[in-house]
Amino acid sequence: MATELTETSPTVLGTWPTPLEAAPRLAQAIGLGAADLWVKRDDLTGLGGGGNKVRKLEWLCGAALGRGADTLVTCGAAQSNHARLTAAAGARLGLDVVLVLAGSATDPGGGNVALDGLMGASVVWAGDVAHEALDPLALAVVDQLRQEGARPELIPYGGSSVLGARGYVACGLELLHQAPDLGTVVTALGSGGTMAGLVHALGCRRVLGVDCGAIEHPARTVGTLVAGLAGAPSRPDELRIRLDHVGAGYAVLTEPVMDALTLAARTEGLILDPIYTGRALAGLMSAVEDEEIKSGERTILLHSGGLPGLFGHAGAVARATGALAEFPRR
Ligand SMILES: Cc1ncc(COP(=O)(O)O)c(C=O)c1O
Asked: What is the pLDDT of residue 1?
């Protein structure tokens, strides 16, 4: 039975629906049946190199335009995909963009930072700070812009407000059209809005979040967003969240993630990133190993984007380059 799509954003920035593709060689390599594993290609959302934040930004930018904003302000890590896509949304909509980023201008750039510059964003370098310290700095930028006569709109960290999470309610409904028999959707959990939207659309049982270590209390944060979407209390203890792939922290590459990146690339030509989607696949592989996910069920890996972040991660680039085989092999 087809479910009616009811969640339509006011501002279209992406290309919808994104494809749902079979991944039979990767499925068999991780111990599933060939028909069990599918990839939701939200890396192909179109705008600015693509990725999950496009769905959230449609809602957040729609609200900003409704309030007459002329400038978008947001914050994140230096290699934030969300910041890059906010820069892209601003370019598409003719709005100025100011990014408050952790790090400094002298850090190695590349990846998302290069794209931020290409798309015309301005940056405030916040130094070596945790993400909680970025919010007040972004608010200070908003105040300063107002004093200068601009009409700034603050886009939340990771785009993860209740409004932004509605983009992933739409993705959940899209998935129900494409795969009514879906068992589990596996997603990276960063700031939490992606998982929260999927949970609202599909229920706790069908969504597995793999925490990336971006926030301190992932279950509480996702639970609060789910409650906001439903307008009713939620049960964070019922959320399925794996915490076993954070490793030494958000920006630090782990061996299971490097293995997952390599496997996806070599079985399907599928490029994941070292912070988010690589962790999602590593978590999925652990879930198959400990039988949280089983053969015979339709499992969907949400490919939420992040390719520029791969090129901005020196460790991952060095490992990938070092793996290049010379011919003839010795
Ligand atoms: C590529 C990618 N995947 C997944 C996520 C996680 O999404 P969320 O912040 O909604 O939890 C992010 C967040 O920045 C991301 O950039």
From this structure: 36
Within the chain, strands assigned E span 20-22, 37-41, 71-76, 96-101, 122-125, 152-154, 182-189, 207-211, 240-242, 298-303
**pLDDT of 40:** 99
Q: What DSSP letter does each residue of 161-218 carry, written as one string?
A: SHHHHHHHHHHHHHHHHH-TTEEEEEEEESSSHHHHHHHHHH-GGGEEEEE-SSSS-H
Estimate the crossing angle of helix 314-322 against helix 255-268, to 10 degrees.
50
User: Position 224: which residue type?
Assistant: T
Where in the sequence numbering do the catalytic residues fall? 80
Adjacent-strand bridge partners of 200: none
Q: Which amino acid residue places its CA nearest to atom 13 of ligand 1? A: 190
Q: b/e string for 234-249 if b means 16 or more Cβ within 10 A?
A: bebeebbbbeebbbee
Atom of ligand 1 nearest to the CA of 277: 3
Dist CA 24 CA 34 (whole Å)? 4
Angle at 222 between CA 221 and CA 223, to 5 degrees: 90
Q: Which of 112, 70, 111 is nearest to 94 (CA)?
A: 70
**Ligand 1, atom nearest to 76 Cα:** 14
Residue to mutate (ligand 1; options 58, 75, 81; most atoms within 8 A of CB)? 81
Distance 230 CA to ligand 1 centre (A): 21
Separation of alpha carbons 31 and 46, rounded Å: 32
pLDDT in tens, 46-61: 999 999 999 999 999 9
Give the atom of ligand 1 at the shortest distance from the alpha carbon of 188.
4
Structure confidence at residue 2 (pLDDT):
36
The pTM is what? 0.97
Can you list the residues of the chain whose pLDDT is less than 50? 1-4
Q: How many CB atoms lie within 10 A of CB 26?
A: 24
CA 15 / ligand 1 centre spacing (Å): 18
User: Within a 13 Å sphere around the CA of 179, how many CA atoms are in the beta-carbon half?
Assistant: 26
**Ligand 1: which of 18, 40, 43, 53 to mutate, judged by most atoms within 8 Å of the beta carbon?**
53
**Which helix or strand (DSSP H or E) is residue 41 part of?**
strand 37-41
